[in-house]
Amino acid sequence: GQFHSSILNQTVPYIRPQENGYKEDVCFAYIMPRGPSRGYRRSVLILGETTFGFSAHHFSDSDFGVGGGYQRHTSDLRPRPQTWLHVDYRQQGVGGIDSWGFNPSPLSKYSLPYAPLHLTFTLSTFDSNQP
After folding, report:
1. Where are the extended beta strands (E) located within 38-110?
2. Other CB atoms closer than 10 Å to residue 43's CB: what's the count?
3. Taking every annotated instance into account, which residue ranges of this chain make up the domain Beta galactosidase small chain/ (predicted)?
């Protein structure tokens, strides 16, 4: 089936900001700007040759703690006007026994193999006023 939602509605307000809202086994994703336009805005269509995973946020990776400049609480985050889009072959699962120990790892059935992986997709942009 198809799933429709806004990017901000996909954000999970964890106490400590972290990556979230990931979608997997996706055939296509359509990211469209919302609200009044103040300039040139484009829509994005991602069409996978096979299924893929993706996330889209109005927060940068560093807002979530990637690279060291993270916020301590979700209430510290302020949505940005830009959209950060991540397209992945898959994402290593979070199905671990615990997440608090040293080097927690997901169960093997939720792990990706240590091997070359291949993903092919088409990324198209177009004027957001077009259907």
Report:
1. 42-57, 84-88
2. 16
3. 1-124
* Amino acid letter, residue 81: P
CATH topology for the 8-127 domain: Beta-galactosidase; Chain A, domain 5 (2.70.98)
Span 5-58, pLDDT tens digits: 888 898 888 888 888 889 999 999 999 887 666 666 788 999 999 999 999 999
Instruction: Give strand pairing partners of 109.
Output: none
Q: Is 33 exposed, middle or buried (0-12, 13-18, 19+ CB in 10 A)?
A: middle
91: its two tokens = 């994402």
Assess contact for 96 and 105: CB atoms under 8 A.
yes
User: Each residue of 51-80: b (16+ CB within 10 Å) or e?
Assistant: ebbbbbbbbeeebbeeeeebbeeeeebeee
- Please give the structure tokens belonging to residue 75: 């209430």
